[in-house]
From TrEMBL, chain A:
Biological function: Plays a role in vesicular protein sorting. Component of the membrane-associated retromer complex which is essential in endosome-to-Golgi retrograde transport. The VPS29-VPS26-VPS35 subcomplex may be involved in recycling of specific cargos from endosome to the plasma membrane.
Gene3D superfamilies referenced in this protein's UniProt entry, alphabetically: 2.60.40.640
Membrane topology: Peripheral membrane protein
One of the GO biological process terms: intracellular protein transport
Protein localization: Cytoplasm; Endosome membrane; Golgi apparatus, trans-Golgi network membrane; Prevacuolar compartment membrane
Keywords: Cytoplasm, Endosome, Golgi apparatus, Membrane, Protein transport, Transport
SUPFAM superfamilies assigned: E set domains (SSF81296)
Name of the molecule in the record: Vacuolar protein sorting-associated protein 26A-like
Keyword Transport: yes
Organism, as annotated: Raphanus sativus (Radish)
TrEMBL record, chain B:
Gene encoding the protein: LOC108812076
Protein name, as recorded: Vacuolar protein sorting-associated protein 35
Predominant location category: cytoplasm
InterPro entries, per the entry: Vps35, Vps35_C
KW Protein transport (keyword) present: yes
């Protein structure tokens, strides 16, 4: 019985650990099945080192044609699921072909790895980093083990960060001027601003500020755009009179935002917009959308 | 229908608030910050409703804000446990809906200020700015009201625990002022929400909310740091700016009143210019009179309550400022109804009376201003305005309690001229009542003139109003009664001045017309007679002035009373003549007295035709004549003879009988030496008895034995006899009385007499006198031999 089962089981247990795994920060990531798992967090130019442990099941021997570990940066499109495009691929040979009789540990190291993109989990696209250990075997199939890890890169505050200021309106009906204090915000930033009402001839119910994410995948004719509203934040209740100015103060922290990604490897882009929406008493919506750039500031390593 | 829905919605919202409050409380109990925030936000989300009327919304708000108190405690506990308050302050702002977010922000903000981690100024500024986000009037008002409420005890004013240098308390001030401004804007804007046809209802609802706005002013009023300088330089200008600029009637009216009521009196006094300067800038529809009158009333009370305040009033020249301001207002508001402007002057007058009661010229000035205002409108037909004028004119009376003072106000009668006849009379009555109540003496002729000028509404008919049909007779009597009483209050100890007064009064009274004269002349006559008696008692007139001798006055009275007979009040005239005659008698002016009698007799003969009136008049004549001592025998004989003659000519026999026996007295006077003509007395009594006999015979004939009338005549005669017997007149003998008594007995035997008790008591009296031991009366009675007594 044991023997029989053993025939279908992999002959050995492969595990991958990181050298500083105990101390390194772990961040959660949502898997396809909806479960959240914690993965270690890295950033570009870091050295990724660790051990691969191969432990054959009791009394078994593992014949192999070599053991290797790869570090892969992959982009997966959901319309082409399962087909990964590797933009980064590094390999370390851990063992020459032979037999493994007992537990064996292989240390490995990828020094100062270039990982230019952040891990990203979008609607139609996923970018991930993974360590892949392969125990190559001839006829009985190779044994493969993956270990995902997260990458987040930090940006310095932009040297130029103009405010967004704009006057919009519908002739003889509504005329407003709005101002957001910056055009580039880090992920824990707060959007400050003001909405000036220059002319009000409609009766308003409320005014909201929305944060919208626009994810475009593919290129050319195959471009696919998906827009999500991540935040809906009420700014104003009721109808103001002419000359009134309404304050804007929106904390970005509570929302699940990522930095703006522009043309990642020619595969996809993620952009963010502030959408100012006025709703009148007949539920008509008047809105104006403005792009903002999000970036990850070094200081905010502490949370999500 | 709508109200029902209102109830339903309120009930639903209330239960949602309750439910969320319950969960919130549970989260608080288990220190679950996240849930506490979540459920509190949900609870506050109920306040986002637009369905409730302000009244119901208020109920909901109270419920929710009550619940927030435990959240505030929780926040405080959280910070005590080490939670960063700055983080909390951010955390509450994650709420997606604006209204719950701001309620939570205010709540945590108040805790933040208390913690002193930041300056109160920053938080207050942030809160009041952020609250701009709620532009819905109703919800905004309540939100800001909540803000005012939670920060109220945390304002960094001088003396509060949050340190207060001059800088920080100005911050607090700035905060309250800004919150006030915003609230007022929202409140004013409310009127434009919703359909035009419900405007009235909306304004009513809006009025119910006014105290939310006014609360800010209360807070300002109680801020310790607000002293006169701050008030004058910052608070008042800012408030007034808002009040003027909002251009809303309801708000302006309420807020002006609020300012006046909330801030201390001496502030008002010192900033009178500014406050009054705002008045003409208000909307024309604003009920400015209420505002100003409130102010003046307050200042009046202030002046009344503290003596130290008075110099301040003078220093700032409050009176002329107010007077000026009212002038401006009246000028600015063209269609201000007369009643309103009069009310304004009324309050100014009250103010003046309180503050400058010693400055009659001020009072007169107010009256003058009122006159010039009224001159534009002409005579007042508006009932309300007239009432106000009556109050206006009564005010100085009530204050000074002295009509003489009022008489010095030259503009007083000019104001009265604008009243219609009825109101004019009403004021006149008030004036007289004041005199009567306060026992005011009007002591000079000039005052009398002025007074009668004031009350001329009562004294004479007005042109075009001679038709008295609609005048209520009773009211008229009442009014004239007042005039009559007034006459007695015109008094001066100096006879000369007094006689002048009488001359003047007469002049005025004589203009009264036939209806008034019978009521007003008698008091004048009596007043004059009083004077005459006084003159007789006093020394000779040292000045030898013609006008003030008794003769002159009596002469005047003759003429006066004569007027009465012209207006067919002959009986009254007759009485007055007789009174005058007595006075002349007292002054020993025989010819004058004779003259009066002559006039009385003439009246009797010519004017008095009613038999009953004749009887009465004759009795008066007899009574008066009996007391006259001044006549010589000849004159007296003539008058007496005449009177006796009249007696015998009366229509009814019993009347004749009685009059004749009364005449007996004319021949017999106790004091007068020359007046004891016993023969004539007996003659009269005999004649009287004859008439009684005739009456008796007639009645026996006509009604058989059942008559009683003449028996009582006999008894009356018997009594007369007894009187003269007691007086000791020799011609009245026992036999005469005895025979009369017999006669009476005879008559009474014939019939049961109704005069039985009269007879019995007369007999009992006689018996009593007979039994008397001393006084010699028994002797006289002994002469009467009567079997009756057995």
């Amino acid at each position: 019985m044991n023997y029989l089962l053993g025939a279908f089981k992999p002959a050995c247990n492969v595990s991958i650990t990181f050298t500083d795994g105990k101390n390194r920060k772990q961040v959660p990531i949502k898997k396809d099945n909806g479960q959240t798992v914690m993965n270690p967090l890295f950033q570009s130019q870091e050295t990724i080192a660790g051990k691969v442990i191969i432990e054959p099941y009791q009394g078994k021997k593992v014949e192999h044609n070599g053991v290797k570990v790869e570090l892969l940066g992959q982009i997966e499109m959901y319309f082409d699921r399962g087909n990964f495009y590797d933009f980064t691929s590094l390999v370390r040979e851990l063992d020459v072909p032979g037999d493994i009789y007992e537990r064996k540990t292989y240390p490995f190291e990828f020094p100062t790895v270039e990982m230019p993109y952040d891990t990203y989990n979008g609607v139609n696209v996923r970018l991930r980093y993974v360590l892949k250990v392969t125990v190559t075997r001839g006829y009985s199939g190779s044994i493969v083990e993956y270990q995902e890890f997260m990458v987040r890169n930090y940006a310095p505050p932009p040297p130029i960060n103009n405010s967004i200021k704009m006057e919009v309106g519908i002739e003889d009906c509504l005329h407003i001027e709005f101002e957001y204090n910056k055009s580039k915000y880090h992920l824990k930033d707060v959007i400050l601003g003001k909405i000036y009402f220059l002319l009000v001839r409609i009766k308003m119910k409320n005014m909201d500020l929305e944060i919208r994410r626009r994810e475009s995948t593919g290129a050319g004719a195959n471009t696919h755009v998906e827009t999500e509203t991540l935040a809906k934040f009420e700014l104003m209740d009721g109808t103001p009179v002419r000359g009134e100015s309404i304050p804007v103060r929106l904390f970005l922290a509570p929302y699940d935002l990522t930095p703006t990604h522009r043309n990642i490897n020619n595969k996809f882009s993620v952009k963010y917009y502030l959408n100012l929406v006025l709703v009148d008493e007949e539920d008509r919506r008047y809105f104006k959308q403005q792009e903002i750039t999000l970036y990850r500031l070094k200081a905010d390593t502490s949370s999500v | 229908m709508i109200a029902d829905d209102d109830e339903k919605w309120l009930a639903a919202a209330t239960s949602a608030v309750k439910q969320n409050a319950f969960y919130m409380q549970r989260a608080i109990d288990s220190n679950n910050l996240k849930d506490a925030l979540k459920f509190s936000a949900q609870m506050l989300g109920e306040l986002r409703t637009s369905k409730l009327s302000p009244h119901k919304y208020y109920e909901l708000y109270i419920r929710a804000s009550d619940e927030l108190r435990s959240l505030e405690m929780f926040f405080r506990d959280e910070t005590a446990r080490g939670c960063s308050i700055a983080e909390l302050y951010e955390l509450v702002q994650h709420a997606g809906n604006i209204l719950p977010r701001l309620y939570l922000l205010c709540t945590i903000g108040s805790v933040y200020i208390k913690s002193k981690d930041v300056t109160a100024k920053d938080i207050l500024k942030d809160l009041v700015e952020m609250c701009r986000a709620v532009q819905h009037p109703l919800r905004g008002l309540f939100l800001r009201s909540y803000l005012a409420q939670v920060t109220r005890d945390k304002l960094p004013s001088i003396g509060s625990e949050l340190e207060g240098d001059a800088e920080t308390h100005m911050d607090a001030l700035e905060f309250v002022l800004q919150n006030f401004t915003e609230m007022n804007k929202l409140w004013v804007r409310m009127q434009h929400q919703g359909p035009a046809r419900e405007k009235e209802k909306r304004e009513k609802e809006r009025n119910e909310l006014r105290d939310l706005v006014g609360k800010n002013l209360h807070i300002l009023g109680q801020l310790e740091g607000v002293d006169l300088v701050v008030y004058r330089d910052t608070v008042l200008p800012r408030i007034l700016e808002q009040v003027v600029n909002c251009k809303d009637e309801l708000a302006q009216c309420y807020l002006m009143d609020c300012i006046i009521q909330v801030f201390p009196d001496d502030f008002h006094l010192q900033t009178l210019d500014v406050l009054l300067g705002a008045c003409p800038q208000l909307q024309p529809s604003v009920d400015i009179k209420t505002v100003l009158s409130g102010l003046m009333e307050r200042l009046s009370n202030y002046a009344a309550s503290s003596v130290e305040a008075l110099p301040n009033f003078l220093q700032v020249d409050a009176f002329s400022k107010l007077n000026h301001a009212i002038g401006k207002v009246v000028e600015a508001q063209v269609d201000l109804p007369a009643s309103a402007s009069v009310t304004l002057y009324l309050f100014l007058l009250k103010f003046t009376l309180h503050v400058h009661s010693d400055r009659l010229d001020y009072v007169d000035q107010v009256l003058g201003s009122c006159v010039s205002q009224l001159s534009a409108t002409g005579k007042l037909c508006d009932d309300k305005a007239s009432k106000q004028i009556v109050a206006f004119l009564s005010a100085p009376l009530e204050k000074y309690n002295d009509v003489v003072t009022i008489l010095k106000l030259t503009n007083y009668p000019r104001v009265m001229e604008y009243l219609d006849h009825d109101k004019n009379k009403a004021v006149a009555v008030i004036i007289i009542q004041s005199i009567l109540k306060n026992d005011t003496r009007i002591a000079t002729a000039d005052e009398v003139d002025a007074l009668f000028e004031l009350i001329k509404g009562l004294i004479k008919d007005f042109d075009g109003l001679t038709d008295n049909d609609e005048i209520d007779e009773e009211d008229f009597q009442e009014e004239q009664n007042f005039v009559a009483r007034l006459v007695h209050f015109l008094y001066n100890d100096d006879p000369e001045e007094m006689s002048k007064i009488i001359f003047r009064v007469r002049k005025h009274i004589l203009t009264g017309g036939p209806k008034r004269l019978p009521l007003t002349i008698p008091p004048l006559v009596f007043s004059a007679l009083k004077l005459i008696r006084r003159m007789r008692g006093g020394d000779e007139n040292p000045f030898g002035d013609d006008t003030s001798t008794p003769q002159k006055i009596l002469q005047l009275l003759t003429e006066t009373v004569e007027v009465l007979s012209d207006v067919s009040a002959s009986e009254l005239a007759l009485r007055l003549y007789l009174q005058c005659a007595q006075a002349a008698n007292d002054c020993e002016l025989e010819t004058v007295a004779y003259e009066f009698f002559t006039k009385a007799y003439l009246l009797y003969e010519e004017e008095i035709s009613d038999s009953k009136a004749q009887v009465t008049a004759l009795r008066l004549i007899i009574g008066t004549l009996q007391r006259m001592r001044v006549f010589n025998a000849e004159n007296r004989e003539i008058l007496t003879h005449k009177a006796t003659g009249y007696s015998a000519k009366l229509l009814k026999k019993p009347d004749q009988c009685r009059a004749v026996y009364e005449c007996a007295h004319l021949y017999w006077a106790e004091e007068g030496e020359n007046l004891k003509d016993g023969e004539r007395v007996v003659h009269c009594l005999k004649r009287s008895q004859k008439i009684a006999d005739a009456v008796q015979q007639m009645s026996n004939k006509s009604r058989g034995a059942s008559s009683t009338g003449s028996v009582s005549l006999y008894v009356e005669l018997l009594n007369k006899y007894l009187y003269f017997l007691e007086k000791g007149y020799p011609q009245v003998t026992g036999e005469t009385i005895q025979s009369l008594a017999e006669l009476i007995r005879g008559e009474t035997k014939k019939a049961e007499s109704g005069a039985g008790s009269f007879i019995t008591s007369t007999l009992r009296y006689m018996e009593f006198q007979r039994q008397q031991e001393d006084g010699g009366m028994n002797e006289k009675y002994q002469k009467i031999k009567m079997e009756w007594f057995e």
